[in-house]
Structures are given as C-alpha cells and as structure tokens.
Design brief:
alpha+beta; Arc Repressor Mutant, subunit A; 4 domains; flat; WH_DNA-bd_sf; WH-like_DNA-bd_sf; CBS_dom; CBS domain
C-alpha cells in the first residue's frame, strides 16, 4: 500500500493544469496534517508538477519535457526579471519561443510577431495591444503599469502581461543569459534521459530462484531488481547471490536489500562513476521509492558516444578556460600550450588555482583519450608544488601516464614556462570506455 506522501503526489499529478493548490486544501482533501501536505507540495515543486507564483499562489503546471529544456516558460521569465504578473495568469505555463524588442515603428512590428513570442516594450499601449492580438505575451519594462483594457485583453487571450523595473536592454540581456544557460544544461545528460523505462526485467518479492533463472534466460540480464506489489524497489539479485541456492528458495533470502540506486535527476557521468567504482553493470532508477527504470553500462556508453557527436551549443567555464590552448602528442604523452589571459587570473594578476586545476584536468583528459580512448572522472588531485604564474605568461602542461589499471589511471602533469617549472601534480582518475 502506498504511503500518504505518495498518495498526495498522485493526487497533485491528477489535478488539471492551472489548478490552484494550497497546503490547507490538500490537508483537508487528503485528510493529512498540514506539515505532511506542505512537504509533499514542496517535493511536487522539485519535480516540476507545481510552481509558486507571486500574487497567485501555487498552481499545477505542465511538466517540462526534456526536448524543450532550452525553452523558458513565461512564468520563468517573470521570475528571472523579478517581474509582477498584471494579467493573463492562465498562460504563464506556456513556452517562450522567441522575444522581440518593440523599439520600432508600429507598422514594422507585426512582421516579427508570432504566437509564443514575447514582446519587450515600454509604456506603449498600442504595441501592447497589437502583440496580445497577435498571440504574443508582453513584458513591460521601466516599471510601467498596464491599462485595464490591456489587462482585460491579456486575460481573454490567456497571454501573460508582466511588468519589471529594469530597462529594455537589461531585461533582454537577462532573458538571453537564461536561455544560454539552458543550452549548456541541454548538453548535460541525466539518467532520466537515457534509462530504460519500458519492458523492464524485474522479479516480484515472492519470486523463487527458479523464476530468477527463467527471467535471465528470457532477457539475458543477470542483475535483476526485486519489487513489491506497489513497484517499490526492495532489492537486487545477481547470479552470484543465488549460486548455491535451491530452485524453490525465494530470492528475497539472497538479494541485496540495500542496493546502489540513482534518481532520474542524477547525471549520467555521476552514475557511470558509481558503476565503475563499485564494479556493477546495472543501476535501478528510483523516484519516491518506486522503480522507474534501469540504467545499464551499455546505456551509458551509447549516450556518451551520442553526445560526443553532437555540436556544442553552449560554453561552460571549462570551455572558456581552454579556448586559447592547443594540444599535441609528445614523447611523454600529451602537451597542452597556451597563454594566461586576464580571464584566467585572480585579483592579484596571477593564474588562479581553479583555472590551473581546470587546465590540468583538460590535459589529463586529452592524454587518456589519445592513448586509451577512454573518458575519466578525477578521484584525487595532489600538487607536489605550486608557484605563481603571471598574466600573459606562455605555459605548457605535459601529461604523462604513470600507471594504468582496469578502472583507474595515474597521470603526472608538469606545468612549465620561460621562468622554469610552475607546478607539478599527480592526478588519479576513474576510467570508462567511450
């Protein structure tokens, strides 16, 4: 039987999009304490089922699809610009496709307006009306209000009209920055994106060892999740666990009752690291204690291979740090060369420790990719010594493999320049096949 917490989450998920939710109302309808209702609503918010909106309250929203992660909803726009919703609250969960700055003549604006657009404009009521009539939401800059007529039109069209105190340029820059951050996140794979969720090979809690071998023969999977009648994960059983068991013995006696699991929000890189570190081929994917799917090592490898073929759509801090550096194969391993730019320095005008660590990690990754065609995650980084590196200094980082194991590598990195040796570090990594 599901818990009260799970029942509340199921109740919230069944509510229509746009329905208002309150702690007191949920507590009354589900006959639970307000504390229990509050915790369940907060978890629903974390999973994208509801959202708290200023002056409106908590409402049921449509869960954002992974394929639209680079898109923003109008509600998120209002939060980014610290705006106030003046009308059209019913359309806050709609997705922003593009934004238009209304600094042009009225007759030229219509060609840029499409349904799903966001018009960023000041106190120009005629532009506000024209935008709403064309199916575009409106963001009023400069702290101006909207007339009752514009508010009424926004409510009729279910298109948000938002007011913020920033100027037009600052507002557009804030929205653009948010979209850019979303593009970077799009490059990050999560377990929920790649895990197997259909046709799962599982065993019930009352299954026998005979049932285990039958499922293994049918599916080819030797590591199987064990679930109860409510699809809650209660354990994992492997061939090693039942090697000496009799066919009629229940698998519950031999399974691992506290297996390593991941959630759909766990990154694939983190899950892969756990697989390598603990030497397991499959991880159950669990949400609210229920089994949502499984992640195999083959899923991880395929997803990483797929991402390696995709074009980069956003730059991380690591991308910016290594932008001016080139790498080449040398006798020791790999050498990375470049110049210390102002963006890499601390307030004292020397190469910051964080950026140096990023460059060392980049050199190690290039070395392992070229020599073994593997990806890696750093386990430990130790400096033998460290000297300041001044701005505009030309440096080279030489990465040399000292030891290779089945799942690990030790790499030494030497950082030097015209003034001699700046740093020397030993990096221990966990590896996985690409």
């Amino acid at each position: 039987m599901s818990t009260k917490h799970e029942q509340i989450l199921e109740y919230i998920e069944q509510l229509p999009i746009g329905a208002r939710i309150s702690v007191r109302g949920v507590a009354r309808d589900m006959q639970v304490s307000e504390g229990t209702a509050y915790r369940a609503i907060k978890e629903a918010e974390a999973h994208g089922l509801v959202s708290a909106i200023d002056r409106i309250g908590t409402v049921r929203i449509e869960r954002k699809q992974v394929r639209e992660i680079e898109r923003l909803t109008f509600e998120e726009v209002a939060r980014i610009v610290e705006g106030t919703v003046l009308g059209g609250q019913e359309g806050l969960n709609k997705t922003l496709h593009k934004f238009v700055i209304g600094a042009m003549r009225l007759e030229n604006i219509t060609r840029y307006l499409d349904p799903g657009s966001l018009m960023i404009v000041g106190n120009r009521e005629n532009v506000q009306k024209l935008s709403l009539e064309a199916g575009a939401a409106v963001l009023i800059t400069g702290g101006f209000d909207a007339s009752p007529e514009v508010r009424k039109l926004a409510n009729e069209r279910e298109l948000p009209i938002i007011s913020c105190s920033y100027d037009t340029f600052t507002t557009a820059a804030m929205i653009n920055r948010a979209i850019y951050d979303r593009l970077i996140k799009k490059d990050i794979l999560f377990v929920g994106d790649v895990a197997q969720t259909e046709g799962l090979a599982v065993l019930s809690r009352d299954a026998t060892v005979r049932d285990y071998f039958r499922v293994v023969e049918e599916t080819g999977h030797a590591r199987l999740p064990v679930v109860d009648s409510n699809q809650r994960l209660v354990g994992v059983v492997t061939a090693r666990d039942v090697a000496e068991a009799r066919p009629e013995d229940p698998v519950e006696l031999f399974m691992s009752s506290k297996p390593t699991t991941v959630s759909p929000q766990t990154t694939v890189a983190s899950a892969a690291h756990r697989m390598v570190w603990e030497g397991i081929e499959m991880l159950p994917v669990v949400s609210h204690r229920k089994l949502m799917g499984v992640l195999s090592r083959q899923d991880v490898i395929k997803s990483l291979q797929f991402m390696n073929r995709q074009p980069q759509v956003g730059e991380t801090l690591e991308d910016l740090a290594v932008r001016g550096f080139s790498s080449e194969t040398c006798e020791q391993g790999v050498r990375v060369r470049g110049v210390v730019t102002a963006q890499l320095t601390s307030a004292l005008g020397t190469l910051s420790t964080g950026m140096l660590t990023t460059l060392i990690e980049y050199a190690v990754r290039e070395c392992l990719r070229r020599q073994r065609n593997v990806d890696m995650a750093i386990e430990n980084l130790s400096f033998y010594f460290l000297k300041p590196v001044s701005i505009e200094a030309e440096i080279s980082l030489t990465a040399q493999v000292l030891d290779f194991g089945r799942r690990f590598a030790k790499v030494e990195v030497d950082v030097s320049g015209e003034d001699g040796q700046y740093a020397k570090a030993l990096v221990t990594t966990q590896m996985m096949e690409r």
